[in-house]
Amino acid sequence: MARRKYEFKPDKEGSGILSKLYITRRQRLSLLRWTLYALVILVLSLVQDVILSRIGIRGATTDLVPAGILLLTMLLGVEEGAIFAVVASTLFYFSGSAPGPYAIPFLTVLGTVISIFRYGYLYKNFGSIFICAAFTVMVYEMLVFVMGSFLGIVPTSRFVAFCITGGLSVAVLPLLYPVFLSIGKIGGETWKD
Fold first, then answer.
1. How far apart are CA 49 and CA 97, in angstroms?
2. Is 28 left (phi over 0), alpha (psi -120 to 50) or beta?
3. What 3-state DSSP class applies to 94?
4. What is the pTM of this model?
5. N-term to C-term CA, the chain
6. Residue 189 pLDDT exceeds 70
7. CATH fold for the domain made of 25-184
8. Which pLDDT tens digit goes with each residue over 98-142?
9. Strand partners of residue 60
10. Residues near 148 by Cβ (< 8 Å), separated by ≥ 6?
11. Which of 41, 66, 170, 172 is most buried by its number of CB atoms within 10 A?
């Protein structure tokens, strides 16, 4: 009678937690998409703080990070957009570039409410996304001005500078839209409008 050479095989030793981790292709692409979103927001923050903060028009400069957060909130939809807005605005505040802690609720609530309005009443196209994001950026700038005036940080004579900042930030939105749209196509859409 022939005996089997090895009936018992002991477990492999030294197998780490990464060897048991299995990520599907869709999960990898989703992780790549969110990583690229984060990198774009990081690049916007670096460009704003290093380059554009030195360039001013009547004391105003762009506000790229809030513009990027609000535009991406409009693109992602209500559920993903709200979660993204709260996480991104919190990281924006802790980066030290935000005007204050009130930037977190301003960005989150404005982005979510306008995104709900857009999904409820407007079509998903460039025009509606641009108009809603532009309106939200301008309202955000006005809220930051009002809060700064209320706290005594910003004199009321700087109102024109805040309007120019909002206008310059809105002018950047058409440049950011195709970047976010092409990143959003990675991994396919999980839900169709």
1. 8
2. alpha
3. helix
4. 0.81
5. 67
6. no
7. Arp2/3 complex 21 kDa subunit ARPC3 (1.10.1760)
8. 888 899 999 999 999 999 999 888 888 889 999 999 999 999 999
9. 57
10. 99, 100, 154
11. 66
